[in-house]
Amino acid sequence: MDEIRAVLFDVGGPINTEIEHERLIDADIVAVLAGEGIAVTPQGYAAAVAWAVEHFAPDAHTAIITRLVNGDHMRAERAYRALRERAQGRYPFELRDRIGEVIAWLHGRGLLLGLAANQPADTLSVLDAHGIGRYFHHREVSGTHGYRKPDVRLFLRCCEDLAVAPEQCIMIGDRIDNDVAPAKLLGMRTVLFRTGRHIAQQPRSWEEAPDAEVRDVAALRVALEAMLGAARRA
């Protein structure tokens, strides 16, 4: 077993709970579709969300919209543009309670920390404002380098910047499709933080199964301690 030298974090889910964030996005999607003359019921919306999650849609929001307009791509694109216009500065950052302690603990152990996240560039300043940005050695997200998960180049960019091999990394994310599957493809160990919209998402085979699953920060620390201990003993 390779030595663990780095831990990569997704932002949405493990760090940012996105509870209010997703509630507002859901409301905005319903609103922009109403502007298109489409009335969405709660049951219809829930079915579209489940479809997007089950089908491993990289961008759940575009998939949800497309599903709700019955595959009318022109209408879906128009609705998505309207959603982006509504979104400017509207969605809050909700720091997960005690996640900063785990990040500081990992940093204190001498591990290299990186961001493997589909996020706008201004996320970096938000992490700084919450006092945790300074712990990350790799300070790039999709909004700064242009790669978006599940593209493995995003993960390889992290590894290159940190000067580590993928096999020396642990990836922490909240999705099988965008986080666990591509990270495992590269040989990383993975922790699935079950939370939010993708909480019930399942791997399609054992090859996509995470090495550990957690539902809170206390369990995350326990899982990381076990992984780091196992790597030292190997």
CATH topology of the largest domain: Rossmann fold
Fraction of helical residues: 40-55%
Domain module count: 2
Overall geometry: globular
By CATH reckoning, the class of the largest domain would read Alpha Beta
Assembly state here?
single chain
Strand order of the largest sheet: 2-1-3-4-5
**Number of DSSP strand runs:** 5
Q: Judging by the overall fold, what is the CATH architecture of the largest domain?
A: 3-Layer(aba) Sandwich
Short description:
The protein is an alpha/beta fold and 234 residues long. The chain has helices spanning 19-35, 42-54, 60-68, 73-87, 99-108, 123-129, 142-145, 152-162, 176-185, 217-233, and strands at 6-9, 112-115, 169-173, 189-193, 212-214. Helices cover 48% and strands 9% of the residues.
